[in-house]
Design a protein that fits this description.
mainly alpha, Arp2/3 complex 21 kDa subunit ARPC3
Length: about 190
C-alpha cells in the first residue's frame, strides 16, 4: 500500500469513526444532573487510536472534540470552557494511540487517554465552573472548587472509562474482533 493510499484510508476511517462517535453520543447510558454523561461515544475513537497510533489520532480526536461540542449539545460558559471541556479534553484522547500495537495497549492506552481528559476537565472545573459548586457533593461539604472539580470529573471520567474498558475487553477477547478491529494498521 502506498503512503498516499494509507493516508486516504486513515482519513476515511477517521471520518467513519467520528460519525459513529457522534451517533453514539446521543445514546446516553446515564446523564449526570450537574453535567456530563456516560455513553459509548469514545469507543469508536479509542478503536481508531488503537488502530492508527498517535500520529493519525491527533487530528481525529481534535475533530471529534469540535463536533461533540457543536453537534452533541455542548454547554460552555465561555470560549475557555469550550476549549478545555471539549476541544482539549477530546483531543487528549489521542494519547490512547501510544498503546497501539503494544501488549495490553487497549488497557493502558484507554487509561492514559482518560487521565488526559480528566486533567483538562478538572482544570476547567477549578478555573471556570467554580461558581456553580454546590454546598455538598457525594455527601461531602464543598468548600474548595478544586476538590469539587477533582471529585466530579473523577466520577465522570472513571465511569466512562469503565464502560469503554468493558467493551474493549470484550472486543479483545474475541479473536476475530481482536484481529480485524483492534489490529494496528501499518503505515
Amino acid at each position: 500500500m502506498t503512503h498516499k493510499s494509507t493516508k486516504v484510508r486513515a482519513l476515511t476511517e477517521g471520518a467513519v469513526m467520528i460519525a459513529a462517535a457522534t451517533v453514539l453520543g446521543y445514546l446516553r447510558i446515564f446523564r449526570f444532573p450537574v453535567g456530563g454523561s456516560v455513553d459509548l461515544s469514545l469507543l469508536p475513537i479509542l478503536v481508531y487510536c488503537l488502530r492508527w497510533g498517535p500520529k493519525y489520532s491527533l487530528l481525529c480526536c481534535f475533530v471529534n472534540g469540535m463536533l461533540q461540542y457543536f453537534l452533541g449539545g455542548g454547554i460552555a460558559i465561555s470560549w475557555q470552557s469550550m476549549l478545555l471541556d471539549y476541544v482539549v479534553a477530546y483531543t487528549l484522547v489521542f494519547l490512547c494511540g501510544f498503546g497501539s500495537g503494544k501488549k495490553l495497549g487497549w488497557l493502558w492506552g484507554t487509561i492514559l487517554s482518560s487521565f488526559g481528559r480528566f486533567v483538562s476537565l478538572t482544570l476547567s472545573g477549578g478555573l471556570l465552573w467554580y461558581m456553580y459548586m454546590p454546598e455538598s457533593f457525594l455527601g461531602i461539604p464543598m468548600v474548595n472548587p478544586w476538590v469539587y472539580s477533582v471529585l466530579l470529573n473523577g466520577v465522570l471520567v472513571v465511569a466512562v472509562m469503565a464502560v469503554d474498558l468493558v467493551v474493549l475487553g470484550i472486543m479483545q477477547s474475541i479473536p476475530a474482533l481482536r484481529w480485524q478491529v483492534l489490529a494496528k494498521q501499518t503505515v
